[in-house]
Amino acid sequence: MAGKEYAKREEVTVICRCEDVTLEEIRTLINQGITDMEQLKRLLRVGMGPCQGRTCSALLAGEIARATGKYVGEVKLTTFRPLTAPIKLEVLTRGETHD
Ligand code: FES
To answer: Atom 1, ligand 1: which residue's CA is nearest?
Structure first.
């Protein structure tokens, strides 16, 4: 019974809120031998949402570390891009600055 409850939690635990990637999806790929953060990112889009992994990268690194027996600091992180915010074209044409 306890194992069943654990599996259910894994299914509904969302690691990447931006891309709606669950812990189960991540563990499935890790169990298939994919333990490279860059590959997981490309396959699941984890870390590619609007926050660019600010929320999920540490959680993903923790899962990879747990599966591979490494320290979290030993997990190679992906390239981070700066956060972007949409601005209206009229702001650019008027020469205004954007906060
Ligand atoms: S929570 Fe994963 S990219 Fe934002």
So the answer is: 16
Pick the closest to residue 79 from 46, 38, 39 (CA basis).
Answer: 38
Give me ligand 1 centre to Cα 33, in Å: 23
Query: What does the pLDDT look like over 6-33, one tens digit per residue?
Result: 667 767 899 999 999 999 999 999 999 9
Specify whether the CB–CB gap between 28 and 65 falls below 8 A.
no
Domains of the chain: 2-93 (1.10.10.1100)
Q: pTM of the predicted model, to two decimals?
A: 0.73
Ligand 1: does its nearest atom lie under 6 Å from the Cβ of 55? yes
